[in-house]
Amino acid sequence: MNRATDNPMPSLADTEVSPIPPPRRGRSERPQSRLGTWFDHHVYSLVASLGRMLRKPWATALTVGVMAVAIALPLGLWAALSNVQRFAGDVQQARQISVFLKPQVALDRARVLADTLRARADIAQVELRTPEQGLLELRQASGLGEAISTLDGNPLPSLLVVTPKGDEALLAASLQTLPEADLVQHDADWRARLDGWLRFGTRLAWVLAALLGLGALLVVGNTVRADIQSRREEIGVLQLLGATDGFIRRPFLYLGACYGLVAGALALGLLTAADAALREPLLELARSYGSGFVLRGFDLLRAGGVVLGAGALGWLGAGVVTGHYLRQTRPTQT
């Protein structure tokens, strides 16, 4: 007895992954339109693909797990770089400028100059460090206390540590014109180096995304290829009956897309778990430096894009493998 006739609408667990939708019963029914047949076959292919995955839980878990790790690694690196760029922006805004005064500038004059600079709109804070404070810090930090003690007098000048509000470069140029200023230390090279490292990290994230994305595509392609090999006789019969390549390919495309969608959701779960594990230690570290920096994960829009992108990757892998198989078998069947 024909199985499809006995059970025209199989359950998800018993669904056979077949591109042939179950026939409709009843002679009184009108012939279904071409659009309706096309839609029914899409629905049946999706349900059949899910049933295929559920009937092989171990193989499905391996495929989805490998794809999820391959997707999570570049996404995690990209998220880390985004947080570093945000943190670097905060650091750049709080960058300090060191103004070394001329040795002949008296301490009283240095205090007056500090008060004058505090009144400027482009300066957030000014800290005066006397020569005695500078010498003490040098003795404690350098470990050359005995050598420094042999010096005659204090060779260090007064130092003004200026915290800018606006443009750091313009403020440094303005402070350089002060008659009391001997040297204005505004090291912009660190910013260029940081930007260079961030650009390198971004390029590295794209390279890893390409390589691991290719790996994920090969994984789902190999899984779909195994399904194709197990049904090659059925595919050959369909080709002899005149079935189009799109008709044969459709269930495998949905199978690859399902693998990708589940893998994308699992990758987001892995990144969420990593964020939860790192958030509290990082928050404590930021608090020790007086900062409120916290990690930012993926918002709802980006998370949806990740899942859909993973599904598209699985669809593409299944399409490449199925198309290659059909191109090789079509001439031998005609």
UniProtKB/TrEMBL annotation:
Residues 1-32 are annotated as: Disordered. Residues 96-170 form the FtsX extracellular domain. Signal peptide: none annotated. It is found in: Cell inner membrane. InterPro entries: ABC3_permease_C, FtsX, FtsX_ECD, FtsX_proteobact-type. It is a multi-pass membrane protein. Part of the ABC transporter FtsEX involved in cellular division. Forms a membrane-associated complex with FtsE. This is Cell division protein FtsX. It comes from Lysobacter koreensis.
